[in-house]
Amino acid sequence: MTDISIQAADGGSFSAYVAKPVKGGQAPAIVVIQEIFGVNKVMRDLCDGFAAQGYLAVCPDLFWRQQPGIQLTDKTQEEWNRAFELLNGMDQDKAVDDIKATLAWARQSPDCTGKVGSVGYCLGGRLAFMVATRSDSDANVSYYGIMLDALTGEVPNIKKPLLMHIAEQDKFVPPEARETVLAAVKGNPNVTAHVYPGVNHAFARVGGEHYDQQTADLANGRTAAFFKQHLG
Length: 232
What we know:
By secondary structure, the chain is of the alpha/beta class. It has a single domain (2-231), classed as Alpha/Beta hydrolase fold, catalytic domain (Rossmann fold, 3-Layer(aba) Sandwich), CATH 3.40.50.1820. The protein has six helices and eight strands. Strands 1-2-4-3-5-6-7-8 form an eight-stranded mixed sheet, with helices on both faces.
């Protein structure tokens, strides 16, 4: 587990947390895309978990253009306020470019087989959707992505497998927005969308207010099978 530096397409560089599989050798890579709290312990633990499953896991710092090294929690109102400031201040198109730079770094790594996917949560769930429409990533997973209804025009661009985990009671996604997204992806055979009844946003964030272990285990199991199928 280490931090590395990746060159941005438009100049400058950003850090990324890397976790390598214990067994060594080449492995498929997964780019883990942060929530609104930065590359914090939750994200690093997720990377370590994917490494334990046999993947090279990389989590880039997507807030670096505003403030490098952000590590917030979801425990105080002050941190939530700062997280939303960072969300609102983010240039998401450039964030996708940074993820594409991370995908390229991973694909060229001597530790990687050349197969690379992405998985994102919350803000990262939206960005993973954008990665599916705008990059050559081999497989992508979106957990409770926000503001996806504004991206439905990009659905025809999804050429590689995309798995979506959607919370039925997501406080950040009104039911009509959810239905707009589901209707848009229904016609694309590369997209699989699961709606989880009775759970709220961030149901898979361990230790979070809305963590639901049974639902998280179901979604995470589907994610593991999905990556094994498409990256293995």
